[in-house]
Amino acid sequence: MTVYLWGDAERYGTYRRAVERAGGEVRFGGSPSGCGGLLLPGGGDLEPWRYGQENTASRGLEPERDAAELALLELFTVRRLPVLGICRGLQTVNVFFGGTLCQDIPGHAAQNGADRLHRIRTSPSPLRGLCGETCVVNSAHHQAVDRLGAGLEAVQWTADGVVEALCHQTLPVWAVQWHPERLEGAVGRDLFTAFLALCR
Description:
Order of helices and strands: EHEEHEHEEHEEEEEH
Strand content: 25-35%
C-alpha cells in the first residue's frame, strides 16, 4: 500500500523506513492519485494566522508546506481516505478542522537534541488497542492543541494535560503528537501497521 507525503525523500527518510518496515511504501511529491492514505510528518510550526492568531512564539515557518498539506487534507478527507498526522502533522489536522494551537508550552521540547520520554494515558479509541491504557512515548515539540477542531476527539494526554493524540469521530483520521517513526519498541511499529491496514 502506498501513502503520500508532501516533501522529499531525503528529508523524511525516517518516515519512509518506518512505513516500509510496516509493509508499505511512500510516494514523495508528484500526484497523490492512487495513494491509499496521507502521511503528515513533523517539522516547523504552522503560520499562526491560519488559526486566527498573531505570531508570538512560532518558528521554522513553512508557508508553502502549510498550503500544500491543508489542500491535501481537503482532497483526502473529501474522498474519506485515511490520514495519519505526526507531531506537526497533528497540529495541521487540528487547524484544518478549525482548531487552534498553543504557540509555546514548557516541558515537551527535545533536550540537547534528544527526545524526551513521558507517560501518556489513552481513552477508549482505536489507539487504545495499540498503546494500551498507558504507555511511554517520545516528545520533541513546543506547541500543542488548544481548542479542538470540529469533529475531532482527544484520545491521549500527558500528566500535565497536553493532548497527545486525536481521532476524527467519523473520518479515518488519526494524529499523534509523538514520533512513532523513531520510537523503539512495538508501539511505534504497531501504529504504522494499523494505519496501513486502514489504507487498504
